[in-house]
């Protein structure tokens, strides 16, 4: 079995679905090597390159209503930071801008947003480098994840040193295997945790344990050898001194969220719970969600390592139906029993159902049977109680839990071209994934990176 690199294992990603040696190479040599275009439930796609006329989406109209639907195209921008900057230019609160999904920062991306009480003419006010706001029409309601179907990716894998025929063969072998089993393992990808400084799930666990001081200091002051030297030095200094005033003088300006928290703690030292409220709520909840994601990744890894199938159900497993769009209906699960196992596996075989694993929360039950035993063992190793997901110190951060499919399909995969520059190849591929699924999970199967940092993950 292929051994996952250390950073993968820190994120709970401990296994591969395929056993090819990998083509090597790098993603995100530049932002343009990683392009993401959002697809809505009605089939509308936000395009990076502006079309002659933006197609109507979600039944939007030109008659002015409360929410203006726009395409937000950006390059090298964090989603939360760019919406904050755009909101500032409009003179509105950040909560007036609603999104369906978070997009990669080091990438060129296009997605839909709704902006409250804005006109199409107002969009010309935006002047942010690397950002376009293109109006589509008006809606009566704000955008939410409910309207998101998935994302189309166009990826350049550069710096490949293998022979083109070998590269093409290995890619085809990976895709054939993924097609055979019905998709890729539905791991939460690296950007959920941070690759250069993968600490968000540790922060989330500290929150669940009620230790907000530890959570704050992990977020602010745990350095990583892979981050920028200036940032690493500033974090190490704060870790040693706990001097928030001095940290404000030394923390780089680009560490915006850290500086928000430092400003609060400089004024009110020791108020660690309230210090988290200095951050946008959407960011705060991501910490607990990151720990949930880590636990899910561990569950999925344990199932693969135990040689339990991802496309066939054992007694005690959860299975969920699939909508016509391909989205799983995780709110309507079934538990597999001896009486319904045959029917469940027939539905899994024909893709009418999918196997699902728990996203741990205070309401979500664990699996039964063999999978339930694996999940219980992980929770014991982590020393975590499901009731801690209520987060009594700050209930807004609590989470009920849910289910997530063990596999997710890869749609419309195409190997676009292979080009050679001296001794190195660049491979261009495109594919579509459902919402909440990560391109890097497929890319790690193709590349099998030994060092995720140098490979651009």
Features:
Hypothetical Protein Yqey, Chain: A, domain1, alpha+beta, Alpha-Beta Plaits, 457 residues, four-stranded antiparallel sheet, 13 helices, eight-stranded mixed sheet
Please give a structural write-up:
The chain starts with 5 loop residues before the first helix and ends in a 10-residue tail after the last helix. It is an alpha+beta fold and 457 residues long. The protein has 13 helices and 14 strands. The strands form three sheets. Strands 1, 2, 3, 4, 5, 6, 13 and 14 form an eight-stranded mixed sheet that branches. Strands 9-8-10-11 form a four-stranded antiparallel sheet. It folds into four domains: 6-25 and 161-181 and 410-447, no CATH class; 37-150, Alpha-Beta Plaits (2-Layer Sandwich), CATH 3.30.70; 213-279, Orthogonal Bundle (Hypothetical Protein Yqey, Chain: A, domain1), CATH 1.10.1510.30; 287-405, TruD, catalytic domain (Pseudouridine synthase), CATH 3.30.2350. The protein is globular. The mean pLDDT is 95. Helix 4 (200-208) runs antiparallel to helix 5, helix 6 (229-241) runs antiparallel to helix 7 and helix 10 crosses helix 12 (369-382).
CATH class of the largest domain: Alpha Beta
Number of helices, counting only DSSP H or I runs of 4 residues or more: 13
Rounded to the nearest angstrom, the radius of gyration is 22 Å
The average pLDDT is 95
């Amino acid at each position: 079995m292929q051994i996952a690199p250390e950073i993968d294992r820190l994120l709970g990603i401990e296994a591969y679905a395929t056993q090819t040696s990998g083509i090597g190479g790098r993603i995100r040599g530049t932002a343009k090597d990683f392009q993401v275009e959002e697809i809505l439930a009605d089939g509308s796609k936000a395009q990076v390159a502006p079309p002659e006329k933006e197609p109507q989406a979600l039944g939007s109209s030109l008659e002015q209503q409360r929410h203006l639907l726009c395409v937000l195209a950006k390059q090298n921008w964090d989603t939360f930071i760019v919406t904050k900057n755009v909101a500032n230019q409009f003179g509105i609160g950040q909560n007036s801008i609603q999104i369906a999904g978070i997009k990669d920062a080091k990438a060129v991306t296009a997605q839909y947003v709704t902006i409250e009480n804005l006109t199409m003419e107002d969009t010309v006010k935006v002047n942010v480098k690397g950002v376009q706001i293109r109006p589509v029409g008006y809606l009566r309601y704000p955008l939410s994840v409910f309207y998101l179907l998935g994302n189309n990716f166009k990826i350049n894998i550069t710096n490949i040193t293998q022979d083109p025929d070998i590269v093409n063969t290995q890619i085809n072998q990976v895709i054939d295997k993924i097609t055979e089993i019905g998709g890729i393992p539905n791991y939460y990808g690296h950007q959920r945790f941070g690759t250069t400084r993968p600490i968000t799930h540790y922060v989330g666990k500290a929150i669940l344990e009620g230790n907000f001081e530890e959570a704050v200091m992990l977020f602010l002051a745990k350095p990583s050898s892979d981050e920028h030297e200036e940032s690493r030095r500033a974090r190490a200094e704060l870790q040693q001194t706990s001097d928030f005033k001095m940290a404000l003088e030394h923390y780089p300006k680009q560490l915006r969220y850290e500086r928000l928290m430092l400003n609060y703690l400089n004024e009110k030292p020791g108020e660690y719970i309230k210090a988290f409220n200095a951050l946008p709520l959407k960011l705060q909840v991501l910490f607990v969600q990151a720990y949930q994601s880590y636990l899910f990744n561990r569950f999925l890894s344990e199932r693969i390592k135990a040689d339990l199938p991802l496309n066939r159900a054992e007694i005690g497993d959860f299975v969920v139906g699939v909508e016509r769009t391909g989205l799983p209906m995780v709110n309507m699960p079934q538990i597999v029993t001896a009486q319904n196992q045959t029917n469940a596996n027939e539905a899994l075989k024909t893709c009418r159902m999918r196997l699902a694993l728990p996203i741990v929360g205070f309401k979500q039950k664990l699996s039964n049977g063999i999978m339930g035993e694996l999940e219980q063992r992980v929770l014991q190793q982590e020393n975590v109680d499901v009731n801690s997901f209520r987060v009594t110190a700050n209930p807004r951060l609590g989470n009920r839990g849910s289910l997530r499919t063990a596999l997710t399909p890869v749609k419309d995969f195409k190997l676009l071209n292979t080009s050679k520059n001296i001794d190195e190849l660049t491979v261009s591929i495109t594919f579509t994934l459902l919402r909440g699924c990560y391109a890097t999970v497929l890319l790690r199967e193709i590349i099998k990176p030994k060092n995720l940092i140098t490979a651009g993950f």
